[in-house]
Amino acid sequence: MPGYILTGAPSSGKTAILRHLEIDGHPVVEEAATDVIALHQALGRPEPWREPGFADRVLDLQRERRRRAGTSAGEVVFHDRSPVCTLALCRYLGLAAPSALLDEIKGMTANRHYERTAFFVRHQGFVEATAARRITFEESLVFERIHELTYREAGFDLVDVPAGPLVSRVAAIKEAVERLRR
Fold it and tell me: What is the pLDDT along the chain (182 residues), one digit of tens a residue?
């Protein structure tokens, strides 16, 4: 079954929501960019997002993870981000989007890799810095707006997941999925 995307600004709580959904028995697909960054930082490259080919590496890992998740036929699969997020990241960083990324986005909905409804996880009022997340709260608000515009431009319907307790956010997502599947 096609999957539902969780998207939003860095530090909005997507990963916590994904972990909860996974523990509740749903197949999940991990975010790719953070893992690409972590690997390249471990290889001694402190800012891999500034290197040529970064978006391509993220896209390759996203495709592979989506392919592997395809074995969960009939189940609702949740994706922590998608290639549309990678396009939003390119725009935020002022990088040209690779043609492979643009082609992937054009084919995403036509091939039903993802549902046309995505869950937009709103910021929680702060950002926790990590080695891969070097963004201020103010910068994350700009990034959040770019994400929203990029998803809408790609033809997605966004369901707002407002800040709040984790359990409430997960319940809202599950209720929305149930409504959408009817």
Answer: 568 999 998 889 999 999 999 999 999 988 888 888 889 889 999 888 888 898 889 888 888 888 887 655 568 899 999 999 899 989 998 989 999 999 989 888 677 778 999 999 999 988 887 766 778 889 999 999 999 999 999 999 999 999 999 999 999 999 999 999 88
67: Cβ contacts below 8 Å, ≥ 6 apart: none
Q: What amino acid occupies position 43? A: L
Nearest alpha carbon to residue 89 among 119, 48, 121: 48
- The pTM for the full model equals 0.86
The four Cα atoms 170, 119, 61, 65 give a dihedral, to 10 degrees, of 50
**Residue 29: enclosing H or E segment and its boundaries?**
strand 28-29
Structure token pair of residue 112: 């039903």
Pairwise CA distance, residues 160 & 88, whole Å: 18
- Which two tokens mark 21? 């959904």
